[in-house]
From TrEMBL:
SUPFAM superfamilies: CheY-like, Homeodomain-like, P-loop containing nucleoside triphosphate hydrolases. PROSITE patterns: RESPONSE_REGULATORY, SIGMA54_INTERACT_1, SIGMA54_INTERACT_2, SIGMA54_INTERACT_3, SIGMA54_INTERACT_4. This is Sigma-54-dependent Fis family transcriptional regulator. InterPro entries: AAA+_ATPase, AAA_lid_NorR, CheY-like_superfamily, Homeodomain-like_sf, HTH_Fis, P-loop_NTPase, Sig_transdc_resp-reg_receiver, Sigma_54_int. Coiled coil: none annotated. It comes from Alloalcanivorax gelatiniphagus. CDD domains: AAA (cd00009). Keywords: ATP-binding, DNA-binding, Nucleotide-binding, Phosphoprotein, Transcription, Transcription regulation.
Length: 462
């Protein structure tokens, strides 16, 4: 088999830097071609197929941004990285918005440069088999909103830029993050998701950056921490707005320096990962209110991908219903039930404040309640009367005549508890407060309803 040497185009009007880049590429056994101006860079791009392009931002007769635009039109599959003046985040951000996969700041550190080149060639290689094995099917929805989102995801997957995924609770933000990872060059490496709201503040540093055995009471063995677990891959920071301010500073530092220092350790450890983040809150508003650091906001929010709420893409509901029922059928080892026309119409009319997660809950319950493997409107327990309206607090859906009162009451209890847990991101203390009950009482009910997730040592004697 003939292995061709990857071709890299270097565009820089500074002779010294150009030479450094060419030498580095040569040492990496790559075939480097250099251009000293935007015009020459454009001409070379038009004339030959390159696997990668590194361009300076200042090119004398234009900017690196002009070259990225040109490359996007002529060689859309070719990854481009930019070299920026130190501290010029604005330019770097602009370049990534236009499609550059990453940037490096001057003075150019050789380790970082090599990493940048390797990442770019990785993108080039994975780009060659663009159909990426059915991964995209994991995001159900063919309507215009989802089609546009999927197209954006395909582009974003190639880049290394941090992405802020916005959208309501349960709309599919984590699924989108997984797809961005799964379609990108890091897909063979770990995808690590963390719910920032679920980690106690005092444990956060060690959870993120790891610790050394004995560095604090309770540190009985070394711990790698999430950053190092995700090394080479993607770290997904869910509910990033819940990070306390002191942790935001440390996170910013880790992202900027691409290093972490485990608790109790004196040396820094290099990490190479892509950061994706999400929150159901308005991150801009959190920043304006002083709860989210501005510098971290701009660092994470280079590009935004918005997941629309389910009520704005009702055309996707039938496909989602089919997908969820098939999945439940597989899990329960029974054929999935059919959905009657009226039930489907009721679902398409409902506004789903809890989005796809709520649809899953509704269908799971309906599948338990339905008879002869057919789901009818009564099994859905949607708010009676105005199907399009959001259920008012305290409004109870009617009991299906065949459902025993005990089961009905238990179902209401379960839904109310799940709603409170969803709203508080499974913070049980906050959920108990919301429900007007003690923590112990909530714990007891969770156990009774088999909703407890991790309470091995639970004391249910209430
Ligand atoms: N387009 C979709 N296709 C298939 N399943 C989906 C889709 N969107 C969401 N889901 C499913 O809905 C549930 C909620 O999705 P996910 O956890 O990604 O939402 P989220 O926006 O991250 O929620 P939260 O804000 O609460 O963290 C998951 O079980 C997920 O698999």
């Amino acid at each position: 088999m003939k292995i061709t040497t990857p071709r890299v185009l270097v565009v820089d009007d500074e002779a010294d830097l150009r030479e450094l880049l060419v030498i580095t590429l040569g040492r990496m056994k790559l075939d480097a071609t250099a251009a000293a101006s935007l015009d020459e860079g454009r001409r070379l791009l038009d004339g030959g197929a390159f696997d990668l392009c590194l361009t300076d931002m200042n090119l004398g007769d234009g900017t690196g941004l002009d070259l990225i635009r040109h490359a996007a039109a002529r060689a859309p599959q070719m990854p481009v990285a930019v070299i920026t003046a130190y501290g010029n985040m604005e330019m770097a951000t602009e370049a990534m918005k236009l499609g550059a996969y990453d940037f490096i700041a001057k003075p150019v550190a050789l380790d970082r440069l090599r990493q940048l080149i390797e990442d770019g060639l990785g993108i080039s290689r994975t780009g060659a088999n663009d159909t990426a094995g059915g991964e995209e099917d994991s995001l159900i929805g063919q309507g215009p909103a989802m089609a546009a989102l999927k197209q954006q995801i395909r582009k974003l997957a190639r880049s290394q830029a941090p992405i802020y995924i916005s959208g309501e609770s349960g709309s599919g933000k984590e699924r989108v993050a997984r797809l961005i990872h799964g379609l990108g060059p890091r897909r063979e490496k770990p995808f690590v998701a963390v719910n920032c709201g679920a980690i106690p503040s005092e444990l956060m540093e060690s959870e993120f950056f790891g610790h050394r055995k004995g560095s604090f009471t309770g540190a009985v063995e070394d711990r790698k921490g999430l950053f190092r677990e995700a090394d080479g891959g993607t770290l997904f920071l869910d509910e990033v707005a819940d990070l306390p301010l002191h942790m935001q500073v440390k996170l910013l530092r880790a992202i900027q320096e691409k290093t972490v220092r485990p608790v109790g350790e004196s040396r820094e450890v290099a990490v190479n990962l892509r950061i994706l983040c999400a929150t159901h809150r308005d991150l801009g508003a959190e920043m304006n209110a002083g709860r989210f650091r501005q510098d971290l906001y701009y660092r994470l929010n280079v590009i935004e991908a918005h997941v629309p709420p389910l009520r704005e893409r009702t055309e996707d509901i039938p496909a989602l219903v089919e997908h969820v029922l098939r999945r439940l059928g597989d899990a329960w080892e029974t054929p999935p039930p059919a959905v009657g026309e009226a039930a489907m119409a009721a679902l398409c009319d409902y506004d789903f404040p809890g989005n796809v997660r709520e649809l899953e809950n509704i269908l799971e319950r309906a599948m338990t309640l339905c008879e002869d493997r057919r789901i009818e409107p009564a099994h859905l327990h949607l708010p009676a009367g105005d199907q399009g309206a959001r259920p008012e607090a305290g409004q109870v859906p009617g009991r299906h005549p065949q459902l025993p009162l005990e089961d009905y009451l238990q179902e209401i209890e379960k839904q109310e508890i799940l709603r409170a847990l969803d709203a508080t991101h499974w913070n049980r203390t906050a959920a108990a407060r919301k429900l007007g009950m003690t923590f112990r009482s909530l714990r007891y009910r969770l156990k009774k309803l088999e909703l407890d997730q991790d309470d091995g040592d639970d004391d249910s004697s209430e």
